[in-house]
Amino acid sequence: MATTEITSTNHDQTVADGIVLLDFWADWCGPCHMFAPVFEKASEKHSDITFGKIDTEAQQALAASYGIQSIPTLIAYRDGIPLFSQAGALPGEAVEDLIQQIRGLDMTEVRKQYEELKAKAERQQS
Fold first, then answer.
1. 4-125 is a CATH 3.40.30.10 domain
2. Positive or negative CA dihedral for 86, 53, 22, 61?
3. Which residues participate in catalysis according to the annotation?
4. Crossing angle of helices 92-103/30-45, nearest 10°?
5. Which of 41, 61, 77, 102 is a plausible cystine mate for 15, CB 3.0–4.6 Å?
């Protein structure tokens, strides 16, 4: 599967289901260009995963909502839950390892922990 351009319009729907990897990048960024073929190769190998690319220049508000300060940044979701975020160009082996770890998660337990964290954050804001 090829990568998908992610914008503020399709972001929420894209990350809602399944495994989603998001690559925050910019055209002027050398490390982004180094990571792009690694990301593309992984997208071709794992057709059941959504691989989204977010151009931080074109999608400044979306990048800001994530607090992106360094690119490339890779963010991973499964079933709408953010699981991983790391700045820097990862090697292919690290991307493959990340994918296997995400596939192996007990999502029942992850959902429980995620809901507990959300509830705690809401109580702290009140």
1. yes
2. positive
3. 29, 32
4. 50
5. 77
